[in-house]
Amino acid sequence: MDLTRLAARRTAVLAVEVPGWSRTRCALEQDVRARGWRLAGSPADADLLVVCGRPGARLTAAVDHVWSQLPGPRARAEVTTADDVPAVLDGAAAELADGAAQRRDAAGRPADPEPGTTAAGDDGMGDMDMDGDSGHSGDMDMDDDPGDADGDHASGDGDMDMDDDSGEGGGDDSGDGDMDMDMDMPMPAGIGLAGAGGDDQLPDPDGLDMDVLHVPLGPVLPHWPAGLLLHTTLQGDLVVAARAEVLLPADDAPPDPPVHGTPAGRWDAVATLLVLAGWDDAAVRAARVRDGLLAGGQPPEAERLTRRITRSRLLRWSLRGLGRLPEGDAHDRLRHWLTGTGQRRSTELSAVAELVTGLDLATARLVVASLDLDTADRVTVPVGAGS
Amino acid sequence: MAYLSLAAMFGLAVSGVLLAYLLHRRTAVAPDAVASLPFLSGWRPAEHALSRFEARYYPMTLLFLAFDVEMLYMYPWATVVASIGTSAIVEMFVLLGVLMTGVLWAWREGALRWT
């Protein structure tokens, strides 16, 4: 079967960046493009999972969960310096084309999906204690009160224990909880259904309360700041509350200098924002300019591309008024990146959460991309009790 | 004889589907699909994806269908009711009564209550 060899020529790569390894990620993207491969948007779309850097414990857990979601043939690699990228990708390509090993890997996979852990670090009940106070600035402890918002859920059937590590999570729904009447929430596959209510519920004038959903954005998400985890509470597709934190790397010693704050870093931010705004062509060109700058050159097409991007009316309409800060909105920041006139300033995580609250998901992603957060460069600020 | 060509086409279609299925079973690294939870940036979903599908629309849809079927029968009925006379009117109103029973039942079950 040489189908695998044929398919490996168009490998889809899901890149995960650890805070501090932006340089490695840029090198990876460049190499992927040079090979004629492509970047994947989700694990179902990916053949190869590449972690850029050394992730810390929680980041590793998220990456492992995504790894369990990759359909075979699949390969996984970790790369820590920009120079290692070509060798690592060669190895991964060989691994993907190795049919016998892929069959062994596929045969050894469990029949039930990996349960994983919820982003809130709770017991998998999705309870409503995600209080929207975004007063955490990067501290890691979760205020996870075990008391549920709506009475007790202990319905007394034994096979519904909520431990994440009990291997529950699909398949056997034998005797599940829809049968007893005091269970107010059926649990398909051990995951509860959303309901209205909780602290973040917006009152509806018509009395048609919408379900409240808790959706984590990041850390494994293309075109997203490295290691950023944004806990969002959604109603429909509106973010009604948010809280941001940064998942840390294992050790604070990335070998390569960061691209943030350099001209290449600005073009990287431009490329990310353009992809999310839906202008793939210009985004790829911006990424090429970035790669040229990283290689130490002065790409001649930067001038023309700058003119083309600033001229675009559609982009101006898309970005105007998003993520208003004292010094301007998303489009102003994009212009500053292009002209190199921007000032580096620190953004508090709580400010990020406030900016995306009240927007729909797509707009929230644009706003986060327009902030060009450098998650590797963190300062812990004390937070007052009342904030 | 006409049915022979029909059977041949049917056989061709079925064998094509079977062939594609067998090809998949032979060439995939594992014949069965991988079971995985939805992709949520590497976390377990806090709420089931089923939540996105609002179940309250479906009773409403059934109610709409009840009225819709009434209309469907009433178009042809309206063209002949004058020539047939009383019996047609009685029959139609029996049908309306049957469908209205369903509507009343759905009403009692709370299909029209949103919350």
From TrEMBL, chain A:
Residues 97-207 are annotated as: Disordered. Residues 108-122 have a biased composition (Low complexity). Residues 140-149, 158-183 have a biased composition (Acidic residues). This is Uncharacterized protein. It comes from Modestobacter marinus. The lineage of its organism: Bacteria, Bacillati, Actinomycetota, Actinomycetes, Geodermatophilales.
TrEMBL record, chain B:
Belongs to the complex I subunit 3 family. The keyword Phosphoprotein does not apply. InterPro entries: NADH_UbQ/plastoQ_OxRdtase_su3, NDAH_ubi_oxred_su3_sf. It is a multi-pass membrane protein. PANTHER family: NADH-UBIQUINONE OXIDOREDUCTASE CHAIN 3. One of its GO terms (cellular component) is plasma membrane. This is NADH-quinone oxidoreductase subunit. The chain crosses the membrane at residues 6-23, 57-75, 81-107. It comes from Modestobacter marinus.
